[in-house]
C-alpha cells in the first residue's frame, strides 16, 4: 500500500502502462519538462524520453489528430488536454475522426487513444478552466467516457483506459488532484473493477445518490450528514458515463425507491437527464419520488467569486434529498 | 484574376513540367525522369482506366445507383503520377476524390463505390493496401498523416506518408496545424495539394493571396508547384519528395496545379459559378491526350495498344457497374456493428431491443 494523491496515482498508472507496453505514448502541451500544469505527467519524460513523452505545439486539434495517426501506426497515445474548456478546438477530431474511424473501417481500424481532460471547477480559475463538457462526448457514439473520483480508481482506470482498444475520454476531477488515499500498486489487474462498471461507494437503504468525478466526495459527505437525520443514503460512483452501468443503478434504486443524480455540469440537457430518464423507465413502479437532479444552472461557468454558488455543495445535495423524501 | 478570365489558361512560370500539353518532352534542371516505354504504357493505361471508372461512377449516380460521386475528371495525372511514386511501405491518406491513388494502391474500385452507394462508410482495410480510408471532413486527414509519419520515425522505418487535400483545405486550421507539426518534428510526410482551382463554387482567390506551394516556406519546409496534368512531372516531383522524406529531410508540400473538369460532386452545377471558356482552355491540357500524343510521336505504342487499352477500360467499366449493382444492402442490425472494438453494454442493449422490435413484424 502506498499513500498517493489522485494526481500522483494517475502519474503512477501512466508510468506502469508505459513500462508494460512500449507502444504507450504521452502527448500534450507542457507534459514533458514541466510535467503538465498539474504535474500529472511529472518525471515521465525524464524516464521515458522525448520520443515517448511528446511536448507538442500549442494546438489541441493537432494533438488529437496526430494521436490518431500514431494509433493507426500501432501506438497507444495518451493525450492531455490542459483544461476542459480547451477541448473544443479538438472536438472536431474527437467527434468526427476518433469516434468514427473504427466504424468507417468496418472494424479493421482500432484507435486506442486516451484523451485526458482535467475537468470541473472549485479551484478559483479564470474562464474556460472549470467546465464539465462530458455531455458532448457521451452523446457521441464510438467514444467511451469515464470519470475517476479517487486515487485508487485513478490508478486503475487510467491503465484500463490505455489498454482498451476503443477511444476513451478520461475525465479527471481537478479539484480532487490533491486528495489522498491508500493505493495497492501491487494488486493484480485481473482483480480490478472493470472500468465500465459503477461502484457502490457507500451502502444505504432509503435513497440512491448517483455521482461521478468531483461530486462523489460531495455526495459521500451529504450521505454522512443525512445519516445524522436518520436517513440511510446509498452513494454510487458511476465511473463510466458511456456506457452507463444502468443495471447496478437499477438494482440500487429498486431497493431504495428514491434517486438523486448529482453533477457539476448544467442540469438542462446534462448527463443527469439521461440517467434520470433511464432510471424512471426501469424503476417506475419502485419510485417513491421523481428522480431529481442537482447540478449547475444553465449558464456559462461563472467568475470564480461566484463558483461556490454555482457548484453543488453539501447543502444543495441535502436539499434535493429532502425534496425526494417530501413526496 | 477576375471571375471572367480563364483560370490557368497560361501555365505559371514556376511550374515543373516535363511533358507539354502538345506532348513534347521538356527538361527541368531539378527534376528528371527516365521512363522505359513499358512504364510509359503503364502510366497511360492507369490514366485511361481510372477515367473510365470515374465515368462509370458518374453514370451510375445519374441513374440513381449512387447517392453521390466526387469525380476525378481532369486530375488523373496528379493522382496516377503521385500514386505510382509511392513505395509499398509508404502510407497514403486520401480525401474522398483519390480514386486514382486508390487504383495505384490496389483498392478494388467497387469498394470506393460502396461509400457513395451508402452500404458503408469505407470498408477496405487501410493496412492491407497502405491506403487510408476516405476522409470527408476537409483537411482532417493531414494530421493523421503527420501522426502516422511520427510513428514511422519512432519505428526507425524507411517509409513516408503522403496526404492528399485540395486547394480549399489549405484554409483549414487542421492543415495549418499539420504543417507546423510536420515541420517541428521533421516528420516524413509529403503534402500533396491538388489545386483544382475550385472549392465547390469558391475560387482559389477566396483561399489564398499567394500561390499555395509558397505557404510551405512560412512553415519552414520546401514547397514546389508541379503541372498537375503532367503525369511524368507529378511522378518525378513526388518520387523526389518521398525520397527526401524517407531519408530524414522532413516534409515537402507539392502543389499539383490542375483543374477539376467536372462538378465538385454530382450534386453541384459548375455552370452557375464558372465560365465555359475556362473549361475549354483546360481541355487543351488534358492529362491523357498529351501522353497519347507523346507516345504516338515517339512510337512508344501503336494503334493496337491504344485499342486494347480502350477495350480493357470498357470491360472494367462493365465489371464495376455489374458489381456495384450486386453490392448487398447491409442488414438493419449492422448499425450496431463495429462502433466499439470491445464489448459495450449500451450497444448490446440497443441491438437486442431493435432485434426484438424487428422480430415483432415476423410471422
TrEMBL record, chain A:
The chain positions of domain Transketolase-like pyrimidine-binding read 4-179
**SMART domains from the entry?**
Transket_pyr
Its needed co-factors are:
thiamine diphosphate
Which keywords are on file for this protein?
Oxidoreductase, Pyruvate, Thiamine pyrophosphate
Which top EC class is given?
oxidoreductase
Q: What EC number(s) does this enzyme carry?
A: 1.2.4.1
Which residues does UniProt assign to the signal peptide? none
Q: What are the recorded GO MF terms, alphabetically?
A: pyruvate dehydrogenase (acetyl-transferring) activity
The protein's superkingdom reads: Bacteria
Protein name, UniProt field: Pyruvate dehydrogenase E1 component beta subunit
Q: Where does this protein come from, organism-wise? A: Streptosporangium brasiliense
- List the lineage, top down: Bacteria, Bacillati, Actinomycetota, Actinomycetes, Streptosporangiales
UniProtKB/TrEMBL annotation, chain B:
Q: What is its EC number?
A: 1.2.4.1
Q: Which cofactor does it need?
A: thiamine diphosphate
The UniProt GO MF terms for this protein read:
pyruvate dehydrogenase (acetyl-transferring) activity
Query: The organism sits in which domain of life?
Result: Bacteria
Note the InterPro entries from the entry: Alpha-ketoacid_DH_E1_comp, DH_E1, PdhA/BkdA, THDP-binding
One Pfam assignment:
E1_dh
List UniProt keywords, sorted A-Z.
Answer: Oxidoreductase, Pyruvate, Thiamine pyrophosphate
Protein's UniProt keywords contain Oxidoreductase: yes
Domain Dehydrogenase E1 component, which positions? Answer: 48-315
NCBIfam families linked:
PDH_E1_alph_x (TIGR03181)
> By what name is this protein known?
Pyruvate dehydrogenase E1 component alpha subunit
| Organism field | Streptosporangium brasiliense
